[in-house]
Amino acid sequence: MLYAVIMAGGSGTRLWPESRASRPKQLLCLEGTRSLLQATVDRLGNLVPPDRVLIATTRELAAAIQDQLSHLPRGAILAEPCPRNTAPCIGLAAIRIRRDDPEGTMLVLPADQIVAEAETFREAVRAAAALVDEDPRRLVTFGVRPGYPATGFGYIERGEPLGSAAASGAAAGVFRVRKFHEKPGPEKAQQYVASGSHYWNSGMFLWRAGTILDCLARYQPSVHAGLERIAGAAGSARFAEVLTREFDAMPRISIDYAVMEKAGEVVVVEAPFPWDDVGSWLALERHRPRDEDGNVLDAPRHLAINAQGTIVRSNDPHQVIVVAGVRDVVVVVTPDAILVADKHDERSMAAVTGELKKRGWEEYL
Amino acid sequence: MLYAVIMAGGSGTRLWPESRASRPKQLLCLEGTRSLLQATVDRLGNLVPPDRVLIATTRELAAAIQDQLSHLPRGAILAEPCPRNTAPCIGLAAIRIRRDDPEGTMLVLPADQIVAEAETFREAVRAAAALVDEDPRRLVTFGVRPGYPATGFGYIERGEPLGSAAASGAAAGVFRVRKFHEKPGPEKAQQYVASGSHYWNSGMFLWRAGTILDCLARYQPSVHAGLERIAGAAGSARFAEVLTREFDAMPRISIDYAVMEKAGEVVVVEAPFPWDDVGSWLALERHRPRDEDGNVLDAPRHLAINAQGTIVRSNDPHQVIVVAGVRDVVVVVTPDAILVADKHDERSMAAVTGELKKRGWEEYL
Fold it and tell me: How confident is the model at residue A164 (pLDDT cuts 50, 70, 90)?
């Protein structure tokens, strides 16, 4: 059976000041009236029923997430005691699924991305599931055709096409993975895009719970041993204590580094759906209407005078926001913090939370 | 005796969103903890005692002005029934002064300018008063050496130096006025600045109350007749009614157009003090400290990251304002309105209030 594991523990700071430690990116509504997390669950449609959806997150965010996903059973939320990156997170979800269904297949999805064309997305997931049904040792990744030489994503270099029955049934291509590449510099990124054989690593995966646990046993034995001790305590009074102790002892390690870069049976399904990781406020331009001067005016009361390419964002129904004579500026207003930035200067925007911390202004984080 | 008449009826919209119809520029604190109006009164020092200071303003602003100038007697505020520009305003003050002191001299000052070096200012006023004592028919203007080819001011073209005893006592020059010029286009403004013989018209004047009334009688007989009817009703129960009726019937006309451009005995005292009409937010740069990147950060909580030449202005002690990667942007934050503008684009900033009006958003005006 197919399970969905949605990773919603991120504390993304790129969308500050709307994103905060207590309300990270995945909880924000960027497209419409549903948060990125809610939209990620919605997108599953009838592919995975609510009782097979798991949300992996931190203890701090569990309550806010339960609020947003009140239709899911309480047990759907896996609250990690501390952040340990994706490998321990996925491992924890895998032991939970294995307990319910030793043959269970898990679709792993980040909670903070925008994916359009839900039906195309589900088609791609079905194709991936067929690949795993055909050979349960397979690890499936989803590769996004790079739209520009991004330096903020890892890349997946594809090898030869997979000549299997399941692969030929997939709408887009399926390939063996030649190599995973970490986030490149600008020059390398150019080369990757020019090659035609490199995808952005979407961070979405599909595999059997048992298979990923076998891989962890092989490549990360100490992580695996910790997970098995947690699994052994499941259902007992000691569970919370064991989970906390074992998780605390685990290294912070991504699934890419822990397993994907080392494993053999890795394939990549080309993601034929529009995908956006919402890395900065610039993403609003791709998902909100623009006026004839290219301004995205996502605020109840706004006025643009001789302004071009601006992005204005606020929720206050009474405060008017006026942009005049400016170009390519992003203005984000919240009750206790305002950002005015060059929309293309992601480096400066990314530096904001660090600078606030330096000044001891933790209340804005 | 010397009286001061401070014209504080302006509804300047250039400093929106801080300046509003109910709190125009002259009531704002731009330099320190005193409003422009308060600073204008302070600047008089011992030149004019409080009981010879008159504040001309509108009925709407009278209460707010009394609040800011609580040390002045109630009668110090001359509330005009309706705005009629400077000629009727000055005429009204003149009949009031003439009643108390038929030989009274009046110093006329706009309330919304920044003048530095108060003692130098007072010296210039004393020099002007001496010129009027020497010849009571004189109308004295104060000319500011142009710092750049401004198109927002009228200009005063000087003639030959005044060879009088009083003039030779003045610290800076005193000249006959050859001609008043209205706000020029950019090319004309260049010529004026290059000539070395043109001053900015500061809008400050000094003359005998009787003399300016004589001039009004000669050049604007209908305005003068109205003023005399108001003067005739002074102290009677009919006064308010007569004032309203007569003021209402007067044309909107500036003292420059009504008298100065036509009169003969006009002299200009070169203003040797730093003068700023605070025409836009750009003025903050001239009166507030800048950081090493040229940012003026006039807000309780602010952070500039890779930002240059920005102007940030807010009073909220809890809200942090972050500028990141931007240049030459002005950010002004008030509880119900925010302006983000190119600090050099005065035209776009000046268009804001008109656009708000068009949309029916009167609450922000």
Answer: confident
The enclosing domain of B206 has a CATH number of 3.90.550.10
**Domain span at A94:** 2-276
Residues of A in CB contact (< 8 Å) with B are 17, 301, 303, 305-307, 318-326, 329, 331, 333, 335-342, 344-345, 347-349, 351-352, 355-356, 359, 361, 364
Measured torsion, CA atoms of residues B120, B125, B130, B131, in degrees rounded to the nearest 10? 110
Residue of B nearest to A335 (CA): B319
Q: Cα(A309)–Cα(B321) distance, rounded to whole angstroms?
A: 21
CA distances in angstroms from A282 to A17, A271, A346, listed in the order given:
14, 22, 9
Q: Based on the domain organization, do A222 and A346 belong to the same domain?
A: no
Q: Which of A243, A276, A309 is the last residue of a domain?
A: A276
E-state strands within A111-232:
114-115, 139-144, 155-161, 174-181, 198-208
Domain-ending residue, one of B276, B299, B314: B276
Residue B18 shares a structural domain with residue B50: yes
B chain contacts of residue A355, beta-carbon cutoff 8 Å: 303, 305
B192 lies in the same domain as B295:
no
User: A322 and B338 in contact by Cβ < 8 A?
Assistant: yes
CA of A320: which chain B residue's CA is closest? Answer: B337
A262/A293 same-domain check: no
Separation in Å, CA B170 to CA B121, B166, B199? 12, 7, 17
A205 lies in the same domain as A296: no
* Alpha-carbon gap, residue A360 to A343, rounded angstroms: 26
Query: Do B116 and B170 fall into the same domain?
Result: yes
pTM for this one? 0.90
Task: Select from B92, B101, B142 the least CA-distant residue to B120.
Answer: B142
Contact B338 A325 (CB under 8 A): no
Q: What was the pLDDT predicted at B299? A: 96
Is B338's CB within 8 Å of A320's CB? yes
The Cα of A328 is separated from the nearest Cα of chain B by a number of Å equal to 10
Mean pLDDT by 10 residues, chain B (365 residues): 96 89 94 94 96 96 96 94 95 97 98 95 96 97 95 95 84 92 95 97 98 98 98 95 97 96 95 92 94 97 98 97 98 98 94 96 95
* Per-residue pLDDT tens digits for A95-111: 999 999 999 999 999 99
**What is the tally of structural domains in chain B?**
2
Structure tokens at A44: 């599953």
* Residue from A340, A345, A348, A365 to probe the interface with B (highest B Cβ count within 10 Å): A340
Enumerate the residues of chain B whose CB falls inside 8 A of the CB of residue A361. Answer: 301, 320
| pLDDT number for residue B167 | 82
CA-based nearest distance A20→chain B, Å:
14
E strands, chain B, where? 2-7, 53-58, 77-80, 105-110, 114-115, 139-144, 155-161, 174-181, 198-208, 266-270, 275-276, 296-298, 302-305, 311-313, 320-324, 329-334, 337-342
Judge if B175 and B103 occupy the same domain: yes
Nearest to A342 among B17, B303, B326 (CB): B326
Percent of chain A with pLDDT strictly greater than 90: 93
Nearest CA in chain A to B305: A348
pLDDT, tens digit, 9 for 90 and up, residues A97-147: 999 999 999 999 999 999 999 999 999 999 999 999 999 999 999 999 999
> From the CA of A348, how many Å to the nearest CA of chain B?
6
Name every chain A residue with its beta carbon within 8 A of the beta carbon of B309.
none
Residues A268 and A316 both lie in one domain:
no
ipTM of the complex: 0.89
Flag whether pLDDT at A254 surpasses 90. Answer: yes
How far apart CA B115 and CA B358 sit, in angstroms, is 35
**Has residue A12 got a pLDDT over 80?**
no
Q: How far is A301 from chain B (nearest CA, A)?
A: 9
pLDDT at A168 over 90: no
Mutate to test the interface with B, among A291, A318, A320 (most CBs of B within 10 A): A320
